[in-house]
Write a structure and sequence with these properties.
The complex is a heterotrimer of chains A (274), B (304) and C (450). Chain A is built from 13 helices and no strands. Chain A has 274 residues and is mainly α. In chain C, 50% of the residues are buried. The chains are: A mainly alpha (274), B mainly alpha (304), C alpha/beta (450). Chains in contact: A-B, A-C, B-C.
Chain lengths: 274, 304, 450
């Protein structure tokens, strides 16, 4: 009886919270078929006239299709780098003993704290110096670097919690470091890897400042950069901006659902912590 | 006996390779890190001791600690710091329990967790632009939903000018921030929770533990690492909070909702005082490091 | 299975990014011809190598005159004159400035760029980063003569002889009112400040909002204050405020804050003005929910062709001291500047050529066919120019004005002043007293820059 009430409470809470988090999607959609006046004078009202033309504007003026593809590529590339580089470092930081360990670990920690606006000028001058302007590889590395600290932080923390018996068993089975990391520890760490992967992807997908400063070739525009074309002069066209946001969020939701479910459902029943 | 000997041979063999492994595994991360994080930070530290108007080739005059003096003695900086502290308080008092609760929900055996996960994570996926615009609208005193609901409930006295009353406006942004990032931090907590073996819960169930007790004595203690990670990310995130406040209030009205990061931004890109801006950056970094070290201490102590 | 998914995603991303890079440049109207495509054209040219210059502007959005700009740059590139222009258009102001200021800090500036003159580019002039265009004006008097003389104000600096850029767009701030509402209430258009107060009171008594200011955007009161200062102390006060011989907390200036304070206190400025932004202000006016607003002449081009255009009348901003009736806020807004940071002489010559092209009378006359704004350049309208009585009326005001000034703090020696004053004025809407407002500004001046 008691547990039933508890369950009910959980459901009620989940539904209420779910509603207030999903609500903006609904509002974004409504706004995407209105003009400025419709949005400014009644954001929650149904549109008087459904302006589907905002969507064609998003396609024609902002080339949102291309931009979505660009953003997805950037997001995936940075995610892959962050995951690979981060796991390698985290493995050493959690499993090895060496002199500079705590210093290196704290150094990575500093990375989480750097305010982004301090780095714009040095990074942009670096880009000029090594030919990284207008190139995705440099932008990818920047995104990776900015997510790396948090990734190493999360991965190391997680690996520290993973039962060391797992390693010992693997070593006895004759695993070397590579095998131990990629065959044994990586699968066990999938929950945290997928979490960080999602966060990195969301970052790389929607980042604006560096994408704007480092890219000037229109065909390489990312989604946030492409959206700017609706906010010129003294006025913003809010409707098409929201249409772009809808276009931008759809692939993200699809990837999120596909990826996260795959990872979290199948595995993980074993004794990981202890 | 035999087992131990075998292990020893292994370990000796490994020691030879150990250094190589450490170096090669750390190398990619270090290269990325030094190139794109440490170098800009050094540059910031250098600039913070100079006066520079941001024109290439123009002299960078050494001014010693002047920039720091100006920053630390200005009222606006400490106001902004106070606003950051509000963000931190909100982070620990509201965001942490909320995100942990959501993590418990989505890792529970309830039905529909897939849907919940996607829904809870939605605000982060939508851009800050959309989220900010919507909340600004909701909080509008004359036609926004917040006051309309209050009035409908007969609570006219509680109606406020949410985003233009000093302090209250910061708290509004703090709350929107918690709302937006609850899903984000939920993922971090959930990753730790799914790793807790089911057998522990089953054992507790056999012992007749209530749901609450299972959370109290299994979930929370075994998520200590997640809490530590959250604390550090929260403190540092609050120190450099920028996007949401910029999108919702631009630090206004009349600077009342400024955060250190918005000050830093304005000093550099509006007033072209790059030295002063860098000094703010360094102060934030130092504070971040000190606070995270403190936090690490705190969590270590509790271990004993 | 999982590995496959990841591998597939990876491969997909790489293919996508490859195709993204390899696609040929398609002609489009939104923006830039890319680096790669212009390089390709260079290679195709036979004997002489083209000079490529980069031009940074905010003209990347969909509005007609920005589209026109991009089209004309395309035409410039199609001319066989040895100069190729690569555009970088970032529409949002803060983003544009982020990139521009970063490029100055790194020394890889665009060759030609848009800025707003006055104190905002003073640092670049001081650091000798800009081309002094005076020489080019002297060698081409016709070009120089095509600009209205008054437009060079924000391009000149005491202590730095020269003219540091070329005006491209101009504006003046005037009053717009809803003719229907005025007719219904039997009101006449306010000429003086007392008229304005009377009109406001009558409107308020009749239950109509006189104004609905979007003071969430600080420049709204900034512009109001500019007008109040100019119409009560004259444009000569601008220089005095800049050299501090007229203090920001002197009784004369305090009175200007007081006037704003009064408008707020009497409820003439609208509801929740701190929670209303500029866009909402315009929507409110367009919906007929307030009777008046002040704005730059660009507003005419925004409403041209919509219902509210026909309902709107315009008048000069009301005067406070009759002596300054014919002075107003206005002048050049967007201006072209040429950078010389690490640029070759040939690039600078090419940049000048481009600026001449884009500020030519032909360009302006054609632009006038698609955009209804006022220009810093003299030109003869073509036959294709659409009828625009409201704009003609504003042009009439401008011809009458004896003196104009842009944002007062544009002439200030300190670049933080524009922002400081605007924020202090925003304080008035929060209930700060004029004295507090003055003190806030003076304190910031005392703190100084770096």
């Amino acid at each position: 009886m008691k547990s039933k009430v508890g369950k009910l409470c959980c459901y009620v809470f989940a539904i209420i919270w779910g509603l207030i988090t999903i609500f903006p999607l609904y509002i974004t959609f409504l706004s995407s078929v209105k003009d400025n006046q419709g949005i400014n004078l009644g954001m929650f009202k149904l549109p008087v006239k459904w302006l589907w033309s905002n969507y064609t504007a998003a396609f024609n003026s902002a080339h949102i299709g291309q931009a979505v593809i660009n953003s997805i590529s950037l997001g995936i590339m940075s995610t892959v780098i962050v995951t690979a580089v981060g796991m390698l470092a985290a493995y050493v930081l959690s499993r090895k003993r060496f002199k500079l360990k705590s210093i290196i670990y704290s150094l990575f920690l500093v990375g989480v704290m750097v305010p982004v606006h301090c780095t714009i000028i040095p990074i942009s001058s670096l880009a000029t110096g090594i030919g990284g302007r207008n190139s995705y590889w440099f932008l990818t590395l920047v995104y990776a670097a900015f997510n790396l600290s948090q990734a190493i932080f999360l991965f190391t923390g997680y690996l520290n919690e993973v039962n060391k018996e797992l390693d010992e068993a693997a070593i006895i089975d004759g695993c070397n470091d590579f095998q131990l990391l990629f065959r044994v520890l990586t699968p066990v760490s999938l929950p945290i890897i997928s979490t960080q992967a999602i966060l990195t992807f969301v970052y790389g997908y929607g980042e604006l400042i560096f994408a704007m400063i480092l890219l000037s070739d229109e065909r390489k525009y990312t989604i946030s950069r492409a959206m700017l074309s609706f906010s010129g002069g003294y006025q913003q066209q809010l409707g098409p901006i929201f249409a772009c946001i809808i276009f931008a969020v759809l692939p993200m939701i699809i990837l999120y659902v596909l990826f996260h479910e795959k990872v979290q459902s199948g595995m993980l029943s074993g004794a990981v912590k202890g | 006996m035999l087992f131990k000997e075998k292990e020893r041979i292994f370990l000796r063999h490994r020691k030879v390779n150990e250094k190589i492994i450490i170096v090669t595994f750390l190398m990619p991360a270090l290269v990325l890190f030094f190139g794109l994080i440490v170098y800009p930070v050094c540059n910031t530290v250098f600039l913070s001791f100079h006066s520079w108007k941001g024109v290439y080739g123009a002299a960078k005059d050494f001014v010693g600690l002047n920039n720091y003096g100006k920053v630390l003695s200005s009222e606006s900086f400490w106001n902004a710091m106070l606003n950051s502290v509000y963000f931190m308080i909100g982070g620990f008092v509201i965001l942490m329990p909320l995100a942990f609760g959501l993590a418990l929900l989505i890792t529970s055996r309830l039905k529909g967790t897939k849907l919940m996960k996607t829904a809870f994570f939605m605000p982060v996926m939508l851009s800050t632009t959309a989220v900010a615009l919507m909340w600004v609208y909701i909080l509008n005193p004359s036609y926004g939903a917040a006051n309309t609901i209050l009035r409908a409930m007969g609570l006219d006295a509680l109606c406020r000018e949410w985003l233009s009353t000093p302090t209250l406006n910061v708290w509004c942004v703090v709350l929107v921030n918690e709302w937006m990032y609850a899903g984000y931090n939920m993922l971090i907590f959930a990753a730790g929770l799914v790793a807790i073996p089911d057998s522990l819960y089953e054992a507790a169930e056999i012992d007749g533990c209530s749901r609450w007790k299972k959370i109290r004595y299994i979930s929370i203690p075994l998520s200590k690492e997640s809490f530590k990670i959250f604390s550090v990310l929260c403190v540092t995130g609050c120190l450099k909070a920028f996007d949401l406040i910029w999108a919702m209030t631009k630090g206004g009205p009349n600077h009342t909702s400024e955060t250190p990061a918005t000050l830093l931004y304005n000093e550099a890109f509006t007033f072209k005082s790059f030295g002063k801006s860098s000094a703010i950056g360094v102060v934030l970094l130092v504070m971040g490091v000190v606070l995270s070290l403190l936090m690490n201490r705190l969590f270590k102590k509790e271990e004993i | 299975m999982r590995k496959k998914v990841i591998a597939l995603l990876l491969m997909g991303s790489m293919i996508l990014s490859l195709t993204a890079c390899g696609k040929p440049a398609k002609p489009n109207d939104t923006g830039n011809s890319s680096d790669s495509s212009s390089e390709g054209e260079q290679a195709g040219d036979s004997d002489k190598e083209d000079i490529t210059i980069t031009v940074a502007s905010r003209y990347g959005s969909d509005v007609p005159d920005e589209k026109f700009y991009r089209q004309k740059v395309q035409e410039f590139n199609d001319m066989d004159n040895g100069v190729k222009v690569v555009m970088d258009n970032i529409p949002t102001e803060s983003d544009y400035l982020d990139k521009l200021r970063t490029s100055f800090a790194n020394g890889d500036t665009p060759n030609v760029f848009i800025e707003y003159g006055g104190s905002r580019v003073k640092d670049y002039v001081e650091s000798d980063a800009l081309v002094n265009m005076e020489l080019y004006y002297k060698s081409d008097p016709d070009w120089y003569g095509s600009f209205y003389e008054s437009m060079f104000g924000d391009l000149q600096y005491a202590g730095y002889d020269g003219i540091w850029g070329a005006p491209f767009k101009s504006y003046t701030v005037s009053l717009y009112y809803n003719k229907d509402i005025f007719k219904q209430q039997g009101l006449t258009v306010p000429e003086s400040w007392e008229d304005l107060l009377n009109v406001c009171q009558k409107l308020k008594d009749a239950g109509v909002k006189p104004f609905q200011v979007g003071e969430k955007d600080v420049w709204r009161f900034g512009h109001l204050h500019n007008n109040i200062v100019i119409k009560s102390l004259g444009t000569e006060a601008v220089a005095k405020l800049a050299d501090r011989s007229l203090a920001y907390d002197s009784p004369e200036v305090l009175k200007t804050y007081q006037l704003i304070s009064d408008l707020v206190d009497k409820g003439y400025m609208g509801d929740d003005i701190l929670n209303t932004d500029y866009n909402t202000e315009k929507s409110t006016y367009a919906a007929g929910k307030c009777a008046m607003r002040w704005d730059g002449s660009w507003y005419v081009s925004e409403i041209y062709g919509t219902d509210i255009y026909d309902k709107t009348g315009t008048a000069p901003f009301p005067y406070i001291d009759e002596k300054y009736k014919d002075q107003a806020q206005g002048g050049a807004s967007d201006m072209w500047f040429i950078s010389k940071l690490g640029k070759s002489d040939a690039e600078i010559e090419a940049s000048v050529e481009f600026v001449k092209y884009i500020t030519s009378q032909e360009y302006t006359a054609e632009n006038n066919e698609v955009a209804s704004v006022i220009y810093p350049i003299k030109f003869t309208p073509t036959d294709k120019t659409p009828q625009n009585p409201m704009l003609d009326e504003i042009k009439g005001f401008v011809e009458n004005y004896t003196s104009m000034s842009t944002d007062i703090q544009n002439s200030d020696p300190q670049s933080f002043m524009l922002d400081t004053v605007r924020n202090a004025l925003q304080g008035l809407a929060m209930g700060n007293t004029p004295e507090q407002c003055g003190k806030e500004i003076v304190d910031r001046i005392a703190e100084g820059s770096e």
